[in-house]
Write a structure and sequence with these properties.
The structure is a homodimer.
Chain A lengths: L4 H15 L7 E2 L1 H8 L3 H8 L7 E2 L2 E3 H12 L5 E6 L3 H7 L3 H4 L2 E8 L8 E2 L2 E5 L3 H8 L3 E4 L3 H13 L4 E4 L12 E4 L2 H12 L2
Parallel strand pairs in A: 4-5, 4-8, 5-7, 8-9, 9-10
Antiparallel strand pairs in A: 1-3, 2-3, 6-7
Helix pairs in contact in A: 1-4, 2-3
Chain lengths: 203, 203
């Protein structure tokens, strides 16, 4: 069953909440989740119906079962290997983001064109010369690239990645990429996100 | 008129496309925009109807007018001042993200509790001791905090920011914050985003 994007997003947030529960909190109610996220109670219950989760009783959901049901549904156990393209601050931050591992994202290596960065290691991930990406895509069978390079290089490098065999680009640059149709792009549109935030609330 | 979140997000992407047009490209069609984003043509036309934009003719939209209409609609000129909380890699990356300025986000200063970072400057933004945040919130009248600290400190620091007078938290931590109801939180849920990306396409 395909789950709408917004629901996937909220299920991840529910998982954060469950992660933070103390050991003695065995149950959690939809009301509690809804209140923490400032959303509607019925929304939470509807989202949870997408899961294969029968751990509901009068006092709420069984927290451990609900957590496991989210993990199974969203495939946290199915590791997805990825490369980070760009070893600047943002790339380094993502390489150090150990939570990714828990959610199925396995970052194998990083790439840059700066000789000072090539050969260094960030959180156990080696930085390779960008020219090596095709070779390593084939050898390691990696399909996902996380693009964190400066805007002015984004389009060119995206085409280069497509040519190297990358099939999915998670794009953190403020730039719309023009790649062949067999490459899927997911725009992590930070500026759009900020604008949503501030336009809704008249900051 | 309130604009749905998804539309705001797409309008920002249209703006990226318009930014990248060459000087001699005076017009752009909805088909071209739709094709670059792999969405439906009618969607683009519908989104643009939210704008106060009369620059449409047979060959497409007047690119300069459309760009200006998006800027006016989403308030790029209304500067919103913000602080970055956490001067690690992610905080530094956001501080160096000069594009924010063009879209109305004005980062005034950063805060950390690491003595080695306090007093340094990142892209012209000084890093202050976190204990100073209340004072500077009042003096500079800042309402927005961008939270980029490690997960384990997120809840505590969010409460501290609420107490210091912050009204909007853009939360980059994988943690659901529990703050008083007069503080609005926007979760930049990177893990949810990755899961949406990979669940839709069976990577």
């Amino acid at each position: 069953m395909s789950i709408p994007d917004k629901v996937v997003n909220r299920l991840a947030l529910y998982h954060f909440i469950l992660e933070d529960l103390k050991d003695d909190e065995q149950y959690i109610s939809s009301t509690k989740i809804a209140q923490l996220l400032n959303i509607d109670n019925s929304q939470v219950r509807k989202d949870i119906k997408y899961l294969d989760n029968s751990g509901k009783c009068r006092v709420g959901y069984d927290a451990r079962r609900l957590k496991k049901a989210i993990e199974d549904c969203l495939g946290f156990q199915q590791k997805k290997d990825a490369f980070i393209i760009g070893a600047g601050n943002l790339g380094s931050a993502l390489a150090k983001y150990d939570s990714f591992q828990d959610y199925g994202l396995n970052i194998l290596a990083m790439f840059d064109n700066d000789p000072k960065k090539i050969g260094t290691t960030i959180n156990g991930k080696e930085v390779f010369n960008l020219t090596k990406v095709g070779n390593l895509v084939r050898r390691l069978n990696v399909e996902i690239a996380i693009l964190t390079i400066p805007r002015e290089y984004a389009k060119g490098v995206a085409l280069y990645l497509a040519g190297a065999g990358i099939k999915y680009i998670w794009n953190f640059t403020p730039c719309v990429l023009d790649v062949p149709s067999d490459v899927k792009v997911w725009n992590e549109n930070l500026i759009g996100s900020f604008l949503q935030f501030t336009n809704n609330d008249e900051v």
